[in-house]
Design a protein that fits this description.
A hairpin with an 8-residue loop joins strand 1 and strand 2. Strands 1-2 form a two-stranded antiparallel sheet. Strands 3-4 form a two-stranded antiparallel sheet. With about 375 residues, the chain is mostly helical.
Length: about 375
Amino acid sequence: MGFRKKNKSPPVLSHEFVIQNHADMVSCLAMIILLGLMFEVTAKFAIMFITVQYNVTQVLDEKSDPVNLYQYGPKDVATVFFYLLIAVILHALIQEYILDKMNRRLHLSKTKHSKFNESGQLAAFYLFSFIWGCSILTAEDFATNPTFLWEGYPHTRMVFQVKFFYICQIAYWLHALPELYFQKVRKVRMSFPSFFPFFFSFPKLIEFLHRLGLVLLVPHYLVELLFHASRLFYFSDENKQKGFTLWALLFVIARLLTLTLSVLTFGFGLPRTENQGFSLAEGNFNVLTIRMTCLAAICLTQAWMMWKFINFQLKKWREHSQNQASKKKAASPKSKPHKREPTRGGAANGVVKSEDKTSPRARKAKAS
């Protein structure tokens, strides 16, 4: 009897090797870019990947100090690529040191295992993005001054935090594409709400309405954070379903808030600004056609999300009603109880008793 052969490691640069070691390979690539900062020859190329580019010094008033603002440009593609690598590394760290340990304790099925991992990754991202977005809006005093959505249009320049926020957003949503390969996803099942943040982040590359995009993404991230957190609690204990009720309520409120702010910006704010017209050089797109196109795109997006939400709720309601009906059928008896028939012994005894009640003359006649 021969010894069993141990499983050999996959060949270098093969399909399985890349999947098993993709986090280490990406880490090495990121370290090479960071090491480029140590040498004068490569520093000017490496810094393009790490730091935010296209800063402009602007003097607002004579008494105030100059402020560093930022614009967009083609070099931002390199910055997005570097932080895409960082997103892949963080994805692997969260999966290995947090989610995998929780999965071992919960003993989930394969289907729930993949959904648990998906919700865990998205919950971490939504929590980080929501806190970051709230800090930016607090610094901009949006709660006390909503008119900053259209004041000073065109908004071709932004502070460091806003530009870096959008770069990280685009990098994260782009990193989901290679993760489909690394996780061996055969059938892509991406919900439409997952594409909404990337849909609203991408137009910022042309410096268009980044303020409105930031305001709309923050409540959306709060709703998605609550949904995926509720899924995590549900997978740990199926009786914990109260979070989905709160999520459904906030989902509808977020859609109404998005429509309200969009109509307020495109219908009332931008038409009253001084800079009217179309100019690619200045980043001015304040014309009726573009305003109505953007408003229609946002309204159709929200309508589609509400349609998917309603279908989801109806499906869950049907499943709940079917489960309740099946439980009632199982609890009720299969057939109504019938009256008990007399046994043979009891019937015979009854006959004997009836015969004993006959008169003696009838007995003698019957005997003769």
